[in-house]
């Protein structure tokens, strides 16, 4: 992510464009995706929901959403720190195709005030930023709801889930100047790792799962709506098989449960 005045202006336009989607429109588009999705496993369902939903909202035709999901999966693995080299290579290969794909299909009303290259880059940014994070929330939700009835108050349920099972566990900041932080000397430019998941558990820090300040996540509303509809569909319209939770996906910043359905 970039920094400074340019970042602030683009981010403001981006937030405005995301706010432009009404809750009604998001619910309809995401529900259409959820009911059409034929996923073979909880993991596939959780990963497909965010990218297909975001793609639909950004203007990708329904028949081409599967192709988008393949490209975003490859690209995301490529820029995720710690990915194995073959995934990085596949992602490098997918990046130009993803660019052309979105360039040709991006809805003309999406951040229409910005230059075309910036529009496409930011659309791709939304697709990858919401990929692992929203999948993680859906997977945590599947686990939390396994032996429960669907919540009456989705907002309360998801807010608490996001607090105790922060899908993104940490974020980074860089020191603007040298100083002392928690009795440690730090130099200008040093990286500081902020443990959002831990801060959520303190008396004063609750509510940091989407970050804070100028880099705060702009996707909170979308992520929670996508997760609500995905979970309602997963648990509501079928009788899910019992889940086997084998651990977590290796990741430097996301906590993503690996779930399989037991037959
Ligand atoms: C449960 C799902 C999600 C979680 C937990 C989450 C969490 C986060 C966190 C912790 C950050 C870093 C904030 C900071 O450093 O202060 C972030 C940044 C970001 N997120 Fe999300 N996110 C989620 C879903 C989404 C979705 C669906 C989108 C797209 C619509 C999105 C778009 C972004 C973008 C563009 C940034 C970078 C913002 C900037 O640097 O200014 N996120 N997110």
Please, could you describe this protein's structure?
With 263 residues, the chain is mostly helical. It has helices at 5-20, 23-36, 42-57, 65-79, 85-105, 116-145, 154-164, 196-199, 220-236; strands spanning 170-174, 179-181, 184-186, 191-195, 243-248, 257-261. Strands 1-4 form a two-stranded antiparallel ribbon. Strands 2-3 form a two-stranded antiparallel sheet. A hairpin with a 2-residue loop joins strand 2 (179-181) and strand 3. The model has no long low-confidence stretch (mean pLDDT 94). The chain binds protoporphyrin IX containing FE.
List keywords for this structure.
55% helix, two-stranded antiparallel sheet, binds protoporphyrin IX containing FE, Cytochrome p450, two-stranded antiparallel ribbon, mainly alpha, 263 residues
- Tally of DSSP β-strands: 6
Tell me the CATH topology. Cytochrome p450
Widest beta sheet: strand line-up: 1-4
CATH architecture: Orthogonal Bundle
Bin the helical content: 40-55%
Fourth CATH level, the homologous superfamily: Cytochrome P450
Poorly predicted regions are: none
Structural class designation: mainly alpha
Order of helices and strands: HHHHHHHEEEEHHEE
Cα separation of the termini:
42 Å
The overall pLDDT, averaged over residues, is: 94
The proportion of residues in beta strands is 5-15%
Radius of gyration: 19 Å
Give a brief outline of the structure.
With 263 residues, the chain is mainly alpha-helical. Helix content is 55%, strand content 10%.
């Amino acid at each position: 992510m970039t920094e400074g005045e340019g970042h602030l202006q683009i981010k403001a336009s981006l937030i405005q464009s995301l706010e432009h989607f009404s809750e009604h429109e998001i619910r309809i588009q995401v529900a259409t995706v959820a009911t059409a999705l034929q996923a073979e496993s909880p993991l596939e369902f959780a990963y497909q929901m965010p990218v297909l939903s975001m793609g639909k909202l950004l203007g990708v035709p329904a028949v081409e959403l599967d192709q988008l999901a393949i490209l975003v999966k490859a690209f995301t693995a490529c820029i995720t720190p710690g990915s194995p080299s073959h995934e990085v290579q596949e992602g490098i290969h997918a990046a130009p195709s993803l660019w052309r794909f979105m360039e040709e299909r991006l809805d003309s009303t999406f951040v229409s005030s910005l230059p075309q290259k910036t529009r496409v880059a930011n659309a791709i940014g939304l697709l990858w930023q919401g990929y692992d994070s929203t999948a993680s929330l859906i997977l945590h939700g599947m686990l939390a709801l396994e032996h429960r009835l669907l919540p009456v108050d989705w907002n309360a349920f998801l807010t608490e889930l996001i607090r105790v099972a922060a899908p993104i566990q940490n974020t980074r900041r860089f020191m603007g100047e040298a100083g002392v932080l928690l009795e440690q000397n730090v130099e200008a430019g040093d990286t500081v790792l902020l443990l959002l998941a831990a801060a959520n558990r303190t008396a004063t820090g609750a509510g940091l799962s989407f970050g804070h300040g100028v880099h705060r996540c702009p996707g909170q509303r979308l992520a929670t709506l996508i997760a609500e509809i995905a979970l309602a569909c997963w648990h509501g319209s079928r009788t899910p098989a019992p889940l086997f939770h084998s651990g977590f996906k290796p990741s430097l910043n996301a906590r993503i449960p690996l779930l399989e359905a037991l037959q």
